[in-house]
Amino acid sequence: MARRDVKVKLKLTGLNKLMTSAPVQSRVNEQAARVSAAAGSKFEMVVQGKRPSRRTARAYVQPREGVRLSDADRIALLRALEGS
What we know:
- The chain is 46% helix and 12% strand.
- The mean pLDDT is 88.
- It has one domain.
- The chain is of the alpha+beta class.
- Strands 1-2 form a two-stranded antiparallel sheet.
- It has helices at residues 12-19, 22-39, 71-83; strands at residues 43-47, 59-63.
- The longest helix has 18 residues, at 22-39.
């Protein structure tokens, strides 16, 4: 078999549309919800709203307001991230 070199040229406008699309945001939300649920009740999921400057879908897990975390809580979050 002959080896062929393939060149791929990415169009940034299309890539940006993909990274902020509803299906991608939905998948990111699912993953963050899974991590938040596995981490426990001291954590919550936050979804970033759409802004024109935002180039990617975003959601993250953070401690609930007013909650002080112990080392065990931090370890639970790390384990939840590993299991996602």
